[in-house]
Amino acid sequence: YCTYVHSHAKALKKQGFNVIVLAVINWIPFLSRFQKRKKNFMNRITGIGKPQKIDEVTVIYKKALTFSNLLYNSKINLNGISYYMSIKRIFKKIKNKEEIVLIDAHTYKMEGYAAYRLKKKYKDIVTTVTLHGTSFSRNTKTKNRIKAIKNILNNIDFTICVSSKLKNMANECGVNN
Predict the structure, then answer these.
(1) Who contacts 17 (Cβ-Cβ below 8 Å, separation ≥6)?
(2) Helical spans, DSSP H, in the chain
(3) What are the angstrom distances between the C-alpha of 78 and each of 73, 84, 135, 169?
(4) Per-residue confidence band for 118, with pLDDT thresholds at 50, 70 and 90
(5) How many CA atoms lie within 13 A of 89 on its CB side?
(6) Can you tell me the distance from the alpha carbon of 152 to that of 174, in angstroms, rounded to the nearest whole number?
(7) Contact at 8 Å (CB) between 102 and 123?
(8) Averaged over 117-141, what is the pLDDT?
(9) Which of 62-71, 80-89, 111-120, 143-152 is predicted most confidently?
(10) Phi/psi at 68 (nearest 5 deg)?
(11) With contact defined as beta carbons under 8 Å apart, do 41 and 27 qualify?
């Protein structure tokens, strides 16, 4: 949950939206000593799983298993799948209590994949993915990633590019929304 996402959430809040951010904390189980310290620290700081207010924006931190760069260029998006699996239940609980009008994801590979999967399930919710440079351009280098880019971004409602350079890269990958 970084500065540009928080600024975006605050701007939506200022426009009258009830904003709930699902922020994922990457978890690597085989680094147990480090993870125990990190887990204790993160539980104290964030209260994982418990809603908290940051500048009037509700933020819920969830843990997700991370695979870092393992199989990075494969057809299987392990980090995206893990991200989606970590938020799908909490999303469903929120949807049962709140009227959700927008899923607004930042970056294509993890959050974008989760947004794509949620869009498949909840077709009536407008879904966007914002592309932010390095995370996107790194994924335009292989055939498998370009195919995944097209699949994810062409099956959501809108792709938002923070620059015309990114828009051109997305168009070259076959993104048409």
Answers:
(1) 101, 102
(2) 3-14, 32-46, 78-97, 113-121, 134-137, 143-153, 164-172
(3) 10, 10, 16, 24
(4) very high
(5) 7
(6) 11
(7) no
(8) 90
(9) 111-120
(10) 50, -120
(11) no
Rounded to 5 degrees, what are φ and ψ at 85? -60, -30
103 close to 117: Cβ distance less than 8 angstroms = no
Q: What is the mean pLDDT of residues 31-51?
A: 60
Six token digits for residue 64: 């997700």
Query: Alpha helix locations (H) across 129-176?
Result: 134-137, 143-153, 164-172
- Rounded-to-10 torsion of CA 131, 143, 81, 129: 20
Cα(73)–Cα(16) distance, rounded to whole angstroms? 40
What CA–CA distance (Å, rounded) separates 134 from 17?
29
Kindly list the distances between the CA atom of residue 141 and the CA atoms of 26, 135, 150, in Å, as whole numbers in the listed order.
24, 11, 13
